[in-house]
C-alpha cells in the first residue's frame, strides 16, 4: 500500500500538468510555476509543447514521452527520480493520462522500488485530479458524484449497483464526505473482490494533499486505524475490475449472492450483480445459489 503526503515530504515529484486545449492563455499561475521550476518536462510532442513553453518563458529541459516510447522511458525516469529530480508530464493539449500518455507510465513507475510523489496540477475537477494521479488505466471512466443514500441497506444497494453496472468496463470515481468515508469504503470492502485496487484522495492540491493506494482490504484496514486522518473532502477511485484476477469457489460465489440478498436485493438482482463481478453465466450462478442456500 502507498500512503503519499505530497507536500509533507522531500521526495522527488512527478507533476501531471494540464495544458490549454486551444487558447494558450487558458493556463494557471501554478501550472506555469511548476513547469518553470521542475528539472525536466516530459512532452508528448516537444515541437507542439514548445509554443506553450516559449510563451511563458519556461526553460526546463524537455524529454519526448508518447504512447510509442512510454515503456522505453521508464529506466531513464527512474534514474532521474533516484537522483532527486522533479519532473512534469504534459500532453499536447488537455490533461495527461486522460486519453493521452501517462497512465501506463505512472503505473509502471509505481512498480519500481523507489519513493516518489505523483500530483496532478491544473486538470479541472477533483475527480479528474484523482483519476490522473491514480495511474489506473482509464480509457473509460464513470463519475458518480456523492452517494445519494445516506446509510444502511439503501447505501449498500446503490454502491453495489454502480460497481455492477460500470466497473467491469470503466474505473469509477465517487465523492465522499469526512463523516461517511469509512462507511462507504466498508461497503466497498464487502462488494469488491479482495484484489481490487482503490485510490483515496484527500485535500487535493492543498498543503495536506494525501493519496492512499492499495487493495480494498488494505485501504479499509488503514481507514479504521489510528493513522488515518479524518479531515477534508475525499475522492474514491475504483480501478477497473478485471474479472480474471480472482477465482472463487462455487461456495464463495453462492455466498456472494446470499450476501446481496441479506442486504436487501431480490434474488434475481443479486445473481445479476454477482454475474458481472465473477464473470459467470447468470443461470450457472443461480443454480449454485439454489444448491447451497435453497435446499428443500
TrEMBL record:
GO terms for cellular component: cytoplasm. Its EC number is 2.1.1.198. Residues 13-219 form the Tetrapyrrole methylase domain. PROSITE patterns: RSMI. One of its GO terms (molecular function) is rRNA (cytosine-2'-O-)-methyltransferase activity. It catalyses: cytidine(1402) in 16S rRNA + S-adenosyl-L-methionine = 2'-O-methylcytidine(1402) in 16S rRNA + S-adenosyl-L-homocysteine + H(+). The keyword rRNA processing applies. Gene3D superfamilies: Cobalt-precorrin-4 Transmethylase, Domain 1 (3.40.1010.10), Methyltransferase, Cobalt-precorrin-4 Transmethylase, Domain 2 (3.30.950.10). It comes from the Bacteria. It is found in: Cytoplasm. Keywords: Cytoplasm, Methyltransferase, rRNA processing, S-adenosyl-L-methionine, Transferase. It holds the Pfam family TP_methylase. HAMAP family: 16SrRNA_methyltr_I. Catalyzes the 2'-O-methylation of the ribose of cytidine 1402 (C1402) in 16S rRNA. Belongs to the methyltransferase superfamily. RsmI family. This is Ribosomal RNA small subunit methyltransferase I. It comes from Williamsoniiplasma somnilux.
Amino acid at each position: 500500500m502507498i500512503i503519499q503526503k505530497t507536500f509533507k515530504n522531500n521526495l522527488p515529484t512527478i507533476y501531471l500538468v494540464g495544458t490549454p486545449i486551444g487558447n494558450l492563455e487558458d493556463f494557471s499561475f501554478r501550472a506555469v510555476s511548476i513547469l518553470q521550476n521542475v528539472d525536466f518536462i516530459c512532452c508528448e510532442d516537444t515541437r507542439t509543447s514548445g509554443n506553450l513553453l516559449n510563451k511563458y518563458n519556461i526553460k526546463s529541459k524537455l524529454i519526448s514521452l508518447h504512447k510509442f516510447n512510454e515503456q522505453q522511458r521508464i529506466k531513464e525516469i527512474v534514474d532521474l527520480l533516484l537522483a532527486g529530480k522533479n519532473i512534469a508530464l504534459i500532453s499536447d493539449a488537455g490533461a495527461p493520462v486522460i486519453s493521452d500518455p501517462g497512465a501506463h507510465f505512472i503505473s509502471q513507475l509505481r512498480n519500481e522500488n523507489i519513493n516518489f510523489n505523483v500530483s496532478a496540477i491544473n486538470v479541472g475537477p477533483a475527480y479528474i485530479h484523482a483519476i490522473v494521479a491514480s495511474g489506473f488505466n482509464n480509457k473509460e471512466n464513470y463519475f458518480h458524484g456523492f452517494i445519494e443514500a445516506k446509510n444502511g441497506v439503501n447505501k449498500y444497494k446503490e454502491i453495489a449497483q454502480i460497481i455492477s453496472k460500470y466497473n467491469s468496463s470503466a474505473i469509477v470515481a465517487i465523492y465522499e464526505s469526512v463523516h461517511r468515508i469509512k462507511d462507504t469504503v466498508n461497503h466497498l470492502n464487502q462488494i469488491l473482490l479482495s484484489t481490487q485496487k482503490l485510490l483515496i484522495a484527500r485535500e487535493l492540491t492543498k498543503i495536506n494533499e494525501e493519496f492512499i493506494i492499495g487493495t480494498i482490504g488494505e485501504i479499509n484496514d488503514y481507514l479504521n486505524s489510528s493513522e488515518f486522518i479524518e479531515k477534508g473532502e475525499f475522492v474514491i477511485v475504483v480501478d477497473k475490475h478485471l474479472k480474471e484476477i480472482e477465482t472463487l469457489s462455487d461456495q464463495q460465489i453462492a455466498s456472494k449472492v446470499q450476501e446481496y440478498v441479506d442486504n436487501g436485493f431480490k434474488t434475481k438482482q443479486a445473481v445479476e450483480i454477482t454475474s458481472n463481478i465473477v464473470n459467470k453465466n447468470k443461470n450457472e450462478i443461480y443454480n449454485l445459489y439454489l444448491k447451497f442456500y435453497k435446499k428443500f
